[in-house]
Design goal:
The complex is a heterodimer of chains A (about 450) and B (about 475).
Chain A lengths: L1 H11 L7 E17 L2 E19 L2 E7 L4 H15 L26 H4 L3 H16 L5 E20 L4 E19 L2 E11 L7 H13 L10 E7 L1 H13 L3 H5 L20 E3 L22 E5 L2 E2 L6 H7 L7 E2 L7 E2 L4 E3 L6 H6 L3 E9 L1 H4 L6 E12 L2 E14 H6 L1 E4 L4 E2 L5 E2 L2 E9 L2
Parallel strand pairs in A: 7-14
Antiparallel strand pairs in A: 1-2, 1-4, 2-3, 4-5, 5-6, 7-20, 8-9, 8-13, 9-10, 11-12, 14-15, 15-16, 16-20, 17-20, 18-19
Helix pairs in contact in A: 4-5
Chain B lengths: L12 H12 L5 E17 L2 E19 L2 E7 L4 H14 L32 H18 L3 E19 L4 E19 L2 E11 L5 H4 L2 H15 L7 E8 L5 H9 L4 H5 L20 E4 L20 E6 L2 E2 L6 H7 L7 E2 L8 E2 L3 E4 L6 H6 L3 E13 L5 E13 L2 E6 L2 E6 H7 E4 L4 E2 L3 E5 L2 E9 L2 E9 L4
Parallel strand pairs in B: 7-14, 13-21
Antiparallel strand pairs in B: 1-2, 1-4, 2-3, 4-5, 5-6, 7-22, 8-9, 8-13, 9-10, 11-12, 14-15, 15-16, 15-17, 17-22, 18-22, 19-21, 20-21
The chains are: A alpha+beta (about 450), B alpha+beta (about 475).
Chain lengths: ~450, ~475
């Protein structure tokens, strides 16, 4: 850890007069175990590291990265970043972040338990997950994958402007992908469990979810086309909330690519919806005390009771907008800082998913979506994704349905969120999920 | 060919031999070293500014050890003898091998590297030449129409040198050069914003810009965004879908390509498992995966397990002829590899992947296919897609599409996905034209790994697919 920061310091110290230099270094240790039919199919034990160097001079930025901590190669990277900046267009707002008054939150996201966890026990967890999933129901004919994986990540950022920060975090998760068969029909489903340390993981829950999600889809048919009330389950809503969060980046707004660009202060969503980006919430899988530029992260309320309150900024977009960074620089070591939400959630409602479903006479519960990358246009707001789930009839879950799409625009969907469930859950992505009821989406099926 | 071809191996064969022998000491049945040295450059123009020129370097080795049903894997960025020995022991331990044996390895090749397929190596081209391409594209797109309010352009090149050695004596290398260019535009109209994109990528060097005109690419991207300003909502429900030349490769990649990968087949997680020799598609359909197609995005000399790229016929006249194979699955079946063992980087295990997947041309006339379609959708450009191999249900996006009304293309329609079922769609193909074209360069994701792939089709019609729009 101190080694990473020392390495950053060493490169920063080579800054020439008139130059700003930023160095970000990452070190990661990962284990991944995959079980198949009672045996270990593969076990990966890996260590990886990388450094990104950004140099700014006269409003021009150059960048280079290398997947190593080798000092000779890092010196080359600094030289390359310097050469690269000559080709950039000068930009008066181009500069590194400078320390602000906010101290990074003290987050309990690094757990020694995981660091000390023996590999034999990791293997045993994967094998147990595979066995429990396989034995969970007589209709389960196989488990395509049952994985345990974990990572221990350390990062450091240092700059000539006085930023010197480090972070350390651990994370682990279990995931199972099961195959169920009945009357010649095969369906798949997944289950998972996520935590900071192995004792957070719930093997049984992951197995039970995988079994339920695959078996309840058996016999699924294509639903008729039409407009329908749709319930998004947490796994699905989290993916949509992540996309909505993406449209609120200061960069998208400034470059005319956000569908909410001119809408600050407007009612853009139903009043049931309060959208928050808070990387300082330790429950978030993507929690982090500092952002990609080394500034403290903070809680940003993006929409309050459906009213658009805020866009998120890194130091560049903030300077350009005449405001302050919201601590929202996002990046890996191999790229310059972008801007985006990091841990999005909504204010949960009062009712359980079952209670919400009980109030629906005719509708559809969506448990999985596909083709989000090809079916959502975050600039126009048009979306249409593949989906699978269960019909809702007279307040109860009914027959399974598949091979259909759900479509609307993000703008319209946000205004039509009629209820938010009480089941907020953090998922292995940059958003939390919660049951959402949407008044109307177009279902395209038979 | 490059004037500075360096035939020296990335790592000394003696060092590779020593590393493999260490990995085998504990009784493993198979050991492999994969060495990679990749350099890349990327330049981005956005909002009328050259935002950055960036360079990246990735160098390291992945060591794979197989014992029985278990694969152990470790990787390292430290290519010293000591770093490789440590990784070899870690991989052997991960494979849980605990025996004690001494096996020696003799390579059947000298390890010299082939020459890269590039007339002008991108690293010999100045940054200002690369940046100038971006500026030309920006000016062309902005000059198209006042409605074009934003333009971004991206240039990228890479040179990936790999070397593979294994305990069966294989020693091979490859030098892969890639060059990519893409333009994206935003158009603003009374009803909101729309987007248009055009991209190209080839496994050659900077000489590609002698034959590719970035200005016309920019105009195409601008035209797409501008046209969509008057787009109507896409229809909703089942109808005939005509896919234009080059556009439909993604459809086959998702509808059946993934389902023909032997690792998915072996776990019975594909609707195509156990169906070799069966008629799975309309007899007009001949589907090929070809890693040797010169210049195409999914082309390479050897795969990431050291086997030569091949042309593999997957479906011939409607009959499923073969799956695609990597080392593990081929060995299990006692058959040769098909050159489809690929990995994203030295930090990843190889698995079965597609290369350039395409549909052979058919007998029909493209204009006649549209004219004989009473009512439906014409997709000129597809976005990405996704498949559930277990059920065969797949989606793909349309980023340029039109209504077909009374045999004619009419209104442009807004973006959306189409959904179908792979085996059903293969049967429902009822027309294939002779106007073959390759599509845009793609990145195929599987199990968290992305690899470059190409695809292509002539104009074709699927009698029935579900279009996922919002219009009743």
């Amino acid at each position: 850890m101190s080694d990473l920061l020392a390495l950053c310091d060493r490169l920063v110290a080579q800054a020439q007069p008139g130059e700003q230099v930023e160095v970000v270094a990452v070190h990661e240790r990962e284990t991944e175990v995959r079980a198949y039919e009672g045996q270990v199919e593969s076990l990966t034990a890996a260590e990886s590291q990388g450094v990104g160097v950004r140099v700014i001079r006269d409003g021009r930025q150059g960048f280079a990265s290398a997947g190593t901590l080798d000092l000779t190669i890092l010196d080359e990277a600094l030289a390359e970043a310097r050469e690269n900046l000559a080709f950039a267009t000068p930009d008066e707002f181009c500069a590194l972040a400078t320390p602000d008054a906010l101290d990074p939150a003290a987050l309990d996201i690094y757990r020694q338990e995981l660091v000390d966890f023996p590999v034999e026990t990791k293997v045993a967890l994967a094998l147990e997950l595979e066995r429990r999933t396989r034995e969970g129901d007589p209709r389960i004919i196989g488990v395509e994958s049952a994985d345990y994986s974990d990572s221990v990540t350390q990062t450091a950022v240092a700059t000539t402007t006085g930023i010197r920060t480090t972070t350390a975090e651990t994370g682990c998760f279990l995931s199972a992908y099961s195959l169920a068969e009945e009357n010649g029909d095969t369906q798949a489903g997944f289950g998972f469990s996520v935590g900071r340390q192995p004792s957070d993981l719930d093997v049984n829950q992951a197995a039970v979810d995988a079994v339920e999600r695959s078996t309840r889809m058996l016999g699924a048919v294509k639903p008729p086309s039409g407009r329908m009330m749709v319930v998004l389950d947490p796994w699905v809503s989290a993916q949509f909330l992540g996309i909505v969060g993406g449209t609120l980046s200061g960069e998208a707004v400034q470059k005319g690519r956000s569908l909410f660009a001119e809408r600050l202060g407007d009612q853009v969503a139903a009043s049931t919806l309060t959208l928050i980006d808070d990387p300082t919430n330790p429950a978030a899988f993507t929690a982090t005390a500092t952002d990609g530029e080394g500034l403290a992260t903070r809680r940003n309320v993006l929409m309050q009771d459906g009213r658009l309150e805020k866009f998120v900024h890194n130091s560049y977009t903030a300077r350009r907008a005449g405001t302050a960074s919201t601590g929202s620089a996002v990046r890996g070591y191999a790229s310059t800082p972008g801007v985006g939400v990091q841990a999005v959630s909504v204010q949960p409602g009062e009712l359980s998913p079952a209670a919400l479903i009980a109030g629906i006479t005719d509708g559809l519960l969506v448990q999985g979506v596909s083709g989000l990358h090809s079916g959502v246009n975050p600039v126009s707001g048009d979306f249409s994704t593949g989906a699978e789930g269960l019909r809702i009839r007279n307040g109860e879950l009914a027959e399974p349905v598949r091979e259909f799409t759900i479509a609307s625009t993000l703008q319209k969907m946000l205004l039509e969120v009629t209820a938010v469930g009480d089941d907020l859950v953090w998922l292995p992505m940059k958003a939390a999920g919660v049951t959402l009821v949407i008044a109307e989406l177009t279902v395209s099926g038979a | 060919m490059s004037t500075q071809h360096d035939a020296r191996p990335l790592l000394d064969p003696a060092l590779l031999q020593e590393t493999i022998e260490t990995a085998l000491q504990s009784g493993a049945t198979f050991a492999e070293v994969f060495v990679e040295d990749k350099r890349s450059t990327s330049a981005v123009l956005d909002d009328s500014k050259i935002e950055e020129l960036t360079s990246g370097r990735r160098r390291g080795a992945g060591i794979r050890v197989v014992l029985g049903e278990t694969t152990g894997f470790a990787h390292t960025a430290d290519l010293s003898p000591q770093g490789l020995q440590t990784a070899a022991r870690a991989a052997a331990a991960a494979a849980q091998s605990a025996g004690n044996s001494n096996r020696s390895v003799a390579f059947t090749a000298d390890g010299s590297m082939p020459a890269p397929v590039a007339a002008v190596m991108p690293d010999q081209v100045s940054g200002s030449q690369k940046v100038a391409l971006l500026q030309k594209a920006d000016q062309a797109a902005r000059g198209f129409q006042a409605a074009i309010t934003q333009v971004s352009a991206h240039y990228a090149d890479s040179r990936r040198r790999i070397q593979i050695a294994n305990s069966e004596g294989l020693l091979a290398g490859d030098d892969q050069v890639r060059t990519l260019f893409a333009v994206s535009c935003v158009a603003q109209g009374d009803l909101g914003r729309q987007t248009g994109r055009q991209s190209m990528g080839h496994t050659v060097g900077f000489e590609i810009f002698d034959s590719v005109d970035v200005e016309s690419m920019a105009l195409q991207a601008a035209q797409r965004a501008y046209t969509k300003l008057s787009a109507v909502p896409a229809p909703s429900g089942e109808m005939p879908v005509v896919v234009g030349p080059g556009g439909g490769g993604v459809l086959f990649h998702e509808a059946c390509g993934h389902g023909l990968e032997a690792d998915i087949i072996a776990k019975s997680a594909s609707v195509f498992a156990g169906r070799r020799g069966e008629m799975v598609a309309n007899p007009m359909v001949t589907l090929v995966d070809d890693g040797t197609m010169a210049g195409e995005w999914g082309r390479y000399g050897v795969d990431d397990e050291g086997n030569f790229a091949q042309r593999n016929v997957l479906i011939e006249n409607g009959v499923l002829t073969d799956y695609m194979w990597d080392y593990l699955r081929a060995t299990k079946e006692g058959r040769p590899c098909s050159g489809n063992g690929r990995r994203e980087s030295y930090q990843h295990l190889p698995m079965v992947r597609m290369t350039n997947t395409f549909l052979e041309p058919g007998p029909d006339d493209p204009a006649e296919i549209i004219a004989s379609t009473d009512h439906g959708v014409y997709v000129a450009q597809l976005g990405g897609g996704q498949v559930n191999t277990v059920t065969g249900d797949f989606v793909f996006g349309m980023t340029e599409a039109y209504l077909i009304e009374n045999g004619e293309l009419t209104s442009p329609i807004r973006d959306g996905n189409l959904i179908g079922n792979g085996p059903q769609t293969l049967q429902d193909i009822d027309a294939i034209a002779g106007d073959f074209a390759m599509g845009s360069p793609g990145t195929c994701g599987k199990d968290g790994q992305g690899v470059p792939v190409g695809d292509g089709t002539p104009t074709l019609r699927v009698a029935r697919l579900t279009v996922g729009g919002t219009a009743a």
